[in-house]
Amino acid sequence: MEKIKLGQIVAAVGIKGEVRVYPYTDIPQRFEEVKQLWIESEPAEIKSVRYMKNMVILRLAGVEDRNAAEALRGKYLYIDRKDMWQLPEDTYLVKDLLNLSVVDESGNAVGTLVDVIQNSAQDLYEIQREDGSTFLLPAVGEFVRRVDLKKRLMAVRLIEGLVEL
Asked: Within 10 A of 87 (CB to CB), how many other CB atoms are there?
């Protein structure tokens, strides 16, 4: 089973065993679609889902009081990759992007994608060059020309001022 991290339990909510989850998906409503969930390596069933600001509040089978919910604090929630929903075109899991070889539009090696920084405007790809230096590239179509997960390759457009050419 290939597990995909869906979120992290950050706190107990109330006295009836609900947990507050920081979602790792950009669409928190995905929790309503989850059929099988794992807390670390233990299977879990979602009994109810609600939302509070940018957090997901879950009621899990077998978690009946605050003490049981508190015991789950800090644990990660996973789904099996085979149970995952279809991603929209040009949307990728961070784990699939890490360590892609990055080339420019002419096919010249640029470096390796080592991190994805997620912020409110758009994601930023941290690319490490062979000399160890890094630079950030906005994850938008103007700069990211093509992603080929099978070939483990990302083609990018580099412009003067964004990065030293």
From this structure: 10
